[in-house]
């Protein structure tokens, strides 16, 4: 009887291990951003993101997903401005980041998962753009901004097939955007909606 019970335990343990130890899955992702800065003088702008990920199962219920993503972020000025003889309209700050999110995912069902984790960002481009007295003005202002961005993300996803899914994520920036800023510090906010493709 003891041998039979031991055999059953070994078989069940092997089956459980086999179910929870699937190999990592690589994939690609892309979608749209709706980004802004914290504070009352900015509004959201639309951008895009694209990158790659690897999903590593930790158990039947949990997996970890590191990603490398190019993300187009920034914000628009909420109002137009009058400065001396200048009329400034349609001002916006365009930012390009290489982001590395590391998401811990909880698989509520085989199709539906919830996720949360940190995001590390490296600023690779920055451009201020607007209309001054009717003429378009563009300037690279990367030197005035912090090169590193740190945020916290939360989201959910749904897999329609073993290879195709959709993901929604919100990332709140925890570090300020400008190097030298007085008063309330502006931080990144980013809402993402996109498609994941699993190989």
Automatic annotation (TrEMBL):
Superkingdom of the organism of origin: Bacteria
Organism this protein belongs to: Chryseobacterium culicis
Domain Outer membrane protein beta-barrel residue range list: 17-178
Xref: InterPro entries: Beta-barrel_OMP_2, OMP/PagP_B-barrel
Pfam family, one: OMP_b-brl_2
Name of the protein this chain belongs to: Outer membrane protein beta-barrel domain-containing protein
